[in-house]
Amino acid sequence: MKRQDSRPVEHDALLDEFELEKSGTKLGEELLYASTIRDGQMLHTLRLWEDRSSNVVRLEATASRGPMEHVPLWTAFVTRFVAKGDVDWAQYDGHGVVSLAAMRPPPYVFLSEYEPPKNRDGLYILQFTSSNDAEFFVEQWTALCR
């Protein structure tokens, strides 16, 4: 979120003592999956993260390009579904679409007036740019729930 701040702040003040992603350690988050999704004409990068110390799982969508390319548009914490082993939480609907059953709480949206896409039933959906990516996401989710 610090990257969105337009105030002139010294770069050193923006560095965290503990970064979220730490490779090769048991701290921080591990990136489990990344792909491109679309919302209308906009392309977003979707990432599935797991916190190594708490096993909290979250989805994060960022713009795929532009000045805010690494700033989250929305993020959703889905740990309670993983804890239950709910493999049906993410379901492949065909044509690159994955529906997310009962995402509660709803995603935290960081861009005013933006709402992640939903289907006719009110479920949040991920429209992947390829069917293979959508199917692989569901496979990754299923493996995570085991």
Automatic annotation (TrEMBL):
InterPro entries: PH_C. It comes from the Eukaryota. Residues 31-145 form the PH domain. This is PH domain-containing protein.
